[in-house]
Amino acid sequence: MNRHARLWIGAAVTLVLVALVWPDTLWAHGVSNRDAAFVRTVKGAVPAPFMYLGAKHMVTGYDHLLFLVGVIFYLYRTGDVIKYVSLFTLGHSLTLLLGVLANVPANAYLIDAVIGLSVVYKGFENIGGFDRTLGWRPDPRWAVFIFGLFHGFGLATKLQELALPEQGLMANLLSFNVGVEMGQILALGGVMVALTWWRTRPGYLRHAFITNTALMAAGFVLLGYQLVGYLVTRS
After folding, report:
1. What is the CB neighbour count within 10 angstroms for residue 162?
2. Is residue 133 within 8 Å of 11, Cβ to Cβ?
């Protein structure tokens, strides 16, 4: 067994153990009891608290962050980073708003499983998996936008469960979405600083394969956990 295979297996085993010991940590879209209680008692438009909740969601939403880390991992130009993050933001915002306002029904487990798959996809693309195995790869711009739709819909399913009050709903949702994007900018700023520093180190390219392999392993754990949850609730 080569070194890369051992690292892949080690990363996967570690993540599985984390899932077994702290299963609640896999609920990246989860809303705390305190926040849920606040949302249910809101009367009218309260932009500031909803902006805070949106920013909090993004900064602690590691499934979003894992995907975005994969998206920007090999992007060196600021313009490219802005383009891809904007595509993700557009998709995320559309389904977040439409999913809640139109009350579009969906199974949260299956949506979150697709979100886990998005992390697998990005890690696989970054290690050249599509080119080596299929001889082609999906257009990354469309892929980022489409997966962005699922990321936003994943949050919409959780907000639907809270039965947000109709009074001030549009203003609160827009404020929440603005907060999400503010949190995204904050989180990505930290990631970009870390990546920029790491790229100056001699081991960056040498460890890039390992990092994206671990990214895939994390995505597989998220995917499997959500599918198990779906099967358990259906039985």
Report:
1. 16
2. no
How many residues belong to the chain?
Answer: 235
Q: Are 226 and 116 in contact (CB under 8 A)?
A: yes
- Are 101 and 170 a contacting pair, CB within 8 Å? yes
List of E strands, 58-198: none
Average pLDDT over residues 70-98: 93
* Distance of alpha carbon 148 from alpha carbon 10, whole angstroms: 29
Q: Are 178 and 54 in contact (CB under 8 A)?
A: yes
- 92-130 burial, b at 16+ Cβ within 10 Å, e below that, comes to bbbbbbebbeeeeeeebbbbbbbbbbbbbbbbbbbbebe
CB contact set of 178 (below 8 Å; sequence gap of 6+): 51, 54
d(CA 37, CA 109): 23
pTM passes above 0.90: no
Q: Domain map of the chain by residue range? A: 3-19+28-234
pLDDT at 145: 97
How many other C-beta atoms are found inside a 10 Å radius of the C-beta of residue 20?
9
pLDDT mean across residues, the chain: 84
pLDDT digits (tens, 9 = 90+) for 127-183: 999 988 888 889 999 999 999 999 999 989 888 887 777 888 899 899 999 999 999
